[in-house]
Structures
1.
Amino acid sequence: MFQRLAEAEIPEETFGADLEGHLEVQGELFEVAVPSVSVILAALADPLCDTSRNYLMSVLWRVVLGESHPSEVTRGRTHLAQECHLRAREGLPLIFREALTGDSETAIEILESVDLDDKRVDYYRRLAQNRKRKKG
């Protein structure tokens, strides 16, 4: 599914490439969410069609705001959210870029969850707001 999203050149090519229920369900994370963060970030590093980029950003947002699914908790995997945050921090430059060139609101919410530098998050929030004002 990741490959299909990454290779899509037009929105129609993304149909059926749905990660729903594979990484998380209603904000509750499965173990596979952790390595998926790196895959999402790798995809975001490359040119993507807008549909794929926006979808992957929304998936990343859901994952970094999630908590371990009860089935994972019973297996002792209670720190999936923290592991996803650590993986997401490895791609902060990509998320910064998205804040300035892509889905600013989603990127800023991701940064608020994973970036430990509040001043830097505020800086990117201001830049994104200024960009939005200039566009609109």
2.
Amino acid sequence: MNLPIRYTRLLAVGCSVLLVGITVAFLAIGTGAATAQTTNQTNQTGGEVVTDGLTLVNTSYEPVEDGGNGTLSLTFRADGPQAVTLYDAGAFRQGGQLPSKTKVIEGTVTVEMPVTRQGNFVGVTVVTGNTRYAVPHRIAGESGDSHLFRGRPTWQDTQIAGLSGFAGGLLVISGVAYRRVTKDEGEVTRVL
């Protein structure tokens, strides 16, 4: 079946636009699902629910002058008195006895804990009754904040690289198809 050149051009452009639209839709769906999986559980008043009656409201990190280890401040809100033990998560790599701090939380209380820095993160493990709850805290302003060019590759980096490669390949194929279609040789040739 021979189509006039203008219809062939329209068909090539339409297919290219359709392929790009489908790819963007699939990437958007995949990214949305990944974001929904990593959302922290929060209660109605805000914060992360550690266990029934205990909520982690806020965390902040204060490094020491030399840029080494520092202090992690955790603000808890408890409905009633609860014993909470904090363990320095960064000290796991060093082995031996883990630094810990135990405190009874009632109402809103801020607990400060010296922590060991591991890369761009510090953290503690919160232990209360039968619950073990990890609290990682990313240190802001570090060189690892940019996921595309610094630090270890992430899933977002993979998606960006894949989309860029696909879009570049599609652009080249579309350009070659358009060039071959617009040549006035009188005959349309197959691109792929």
